[in-house]
């Protein structure tokens, strides 16, 4: 059994060929797609965060709105770039959104991917300390975020407060019980997966890995997942370790699918990201019986408990709901995911 949700980048473009032409369209359609996927029996609505781009950016208003309109599905990010974040303010936003959703947030955070501008985090007021890299800064922000989510008091109260305080040091409010245990890290390497387990965060294995050993993407990703699980067990965490992978999967079941994705399946690709070699995972597009056979060979999907379907959001809510429904109806049962 797997949890199956969708992952949307929330692209918009003022083009006649796009169903998502404005930022308002992207946000409102994201909410509508989450509602539709919950009604179809899906398990999650996840959103990518990109700054300085015509895509979803500030996630917490959207997560809160989805939480208010749904009742069952998990709601999350994949991922929030911690280079850009004030971790204390983020903890307040996350606590509020999680309370609105009834404790359903699953927040993916990370160092982030290459952005639209050079060192965009500097425009947000952040820069690495002397001797730090931007990746170091992201981990520092993440460490503070995780600490304050624990709910321990750390701030000295005013001796003459405007409102009465509880005794002792004060914590951030609103506080949402259990949110600390629902934080994930987007890892692009095997070593980062091991670090993630040591921090007690769940693993979001990226759609690209910033290393290449010559083996197929799904095998390298499966190796990363196994290292994460081994490290989690060695650390003695009492909670269950969770792992997600994301894939573009398009069952060809009608003429629309054939027009959009017929013949568009591809193979792994090897390239460079910020001067580092990277291996990119393939997309899957075929009639259901062929998809089942191909996906059964994907070792990383087999190893993960959560599968996020990367949706082409600019094709609109109805079509993306159809894609998710097709996976749930024609593919998932045949592979034992349902």
Note the main attributes of this structure.
338 residues, alpha/beta, TIM Barrel, eight-stranded parallel beta barrel, 18% strand, globular
Describe this structure in words.
By secondary structure, this protein is of the alpha/beta class. It has a single domain (3-335), classed as TIM Barrel, CATH 3.20.20. Helices cover 36% and strands 18% of the residues. Helix 4 links the parallel strand 4 and strand 5. The N and C termini lie close together (5 Å).
Write a compact overview of the structure shown:
This protein has 338 residues and is α/β, with parallel strands linked by helices. It has helices spanning 23-40, 59-69, 87-100, 134-149, 190-198, 217-235, 255-261, 288-295, 299-303, 317-331; strands at residues 3-8, 44-47, 74-81, 105-110, 183-187, 202-205, 208-209, 243-247, 249-251, 269-273, 276-280, 284-286, 306-310. An 8-stranded parallel barrel has the order 1-2-3-4-5-6-8-13, surrounded by 6 helices. A 3-stranded antiparallel beta sheet has the order 7-11-10, with helices on one face. A two-stranded parallel ribbon has the order 9-12.
**pLDDT < 50 stretches:** none
In the sheet with the most strands, the strands line up as: 1-2-3-4-5-6-8-13
CATH architecture: Alpha-Beta Barrel
CATH class: Alpha Beta
Q: Specify Rg, calculated over alpha carbons.
A: 20 Å
CATH superfamily: Luciferase-like domain
The number of E-state strands comes to 13
Strand residue content? 15-25%
Number of helices: 10
The largest pleated sheet is described as: 8 strands, parallel, barrel
Helicity, in percent? 25-40%
- The secondary-structure class comes to alpha/beta
Average pLDDT reading: 93
SSE series:
EHEHEHEHEHEEHEEHEEEHHEH
* Oligomerization: single chain
Distance between the termini: 5 Å
Give the overall shape. globular
Q: How many discrete domains?
A: 1
In CATH, the topology is named TIM Barrel
GO molecular function: oxidoreductase activity, acting on paired donors, with incorporation or reduction of molecular oxygen
Organism: Nocardioides pocheonensis
GO cellular component, one term: cytosol
Protein name: LLM class flavin-dependent oxidoreductase
């Amino acid at each position: 059994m797997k949890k199956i949700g969708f992952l949307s980048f929330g692209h918009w473009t003022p083009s006649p060929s796009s169903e998502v032409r404005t930022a308002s369209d992207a946000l409102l359609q994201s909410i509508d797609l989450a509602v539709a996927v919950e009604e179809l029996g899906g398990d999650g609505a996840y959103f990518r965060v990109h700054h300085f781009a015509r895509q979803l950016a500030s996630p917490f208003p959207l997560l809160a709105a989805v939480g208010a309109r749904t009742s069952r599905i998990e709601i999350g990010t994949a991922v929030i770039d911690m280079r850009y974040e004030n971790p204390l303010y983020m903890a307040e936003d996350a606590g509020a959104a999680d309370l609105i959703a009834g404790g359903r947030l699953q927040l993916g955070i990370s160092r982030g991917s290459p952005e639209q501008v050079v060192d965009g985090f500097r425009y947000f007021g952040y820069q690495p300390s002397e001797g730090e890299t931007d990746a170091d800064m992201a981990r520092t922000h993440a460490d503070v975020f995780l600490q304050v989510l624990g709910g321990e008091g750390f701030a000295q109260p005013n001796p003459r407060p405007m409102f009465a305080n509880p005794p002792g040091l004060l914590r951030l409010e609103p506080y949402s019980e259990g949110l600390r245990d629902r934080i994930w890290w987007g890892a692009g390497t095997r070593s980062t997966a091991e670090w993630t387990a040591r921090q007690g965060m769940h693993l979001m294995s990226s759609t690209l890995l910033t290393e290449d050993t010559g083996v197929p993407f799904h095998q390298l990703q499966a190796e990363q997942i196994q290292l994460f699980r081994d490290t989690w067990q060695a650390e003695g965490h009492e909670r269950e370790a969770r792992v997600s992978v994301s894939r573009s999967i398009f069952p060809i079941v009608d003429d629309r699918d054939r027009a959009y994705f017929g013949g568009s399946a591809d193979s792994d690709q090897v390239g460079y990201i910020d001067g580092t070699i990277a291996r990119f995972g393939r997309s899957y597009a075929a009639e259901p019986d062929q998809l089942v056979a191909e996906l059964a060979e994907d070792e990383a999907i087999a190893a993960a408990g959560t599968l996020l379907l990367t949706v082409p959001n600019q094709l609109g809510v109805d079509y993306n709901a159809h894609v998710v429904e097709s996976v749930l109806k024609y593919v998932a049962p045949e592979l034992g995911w349902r």
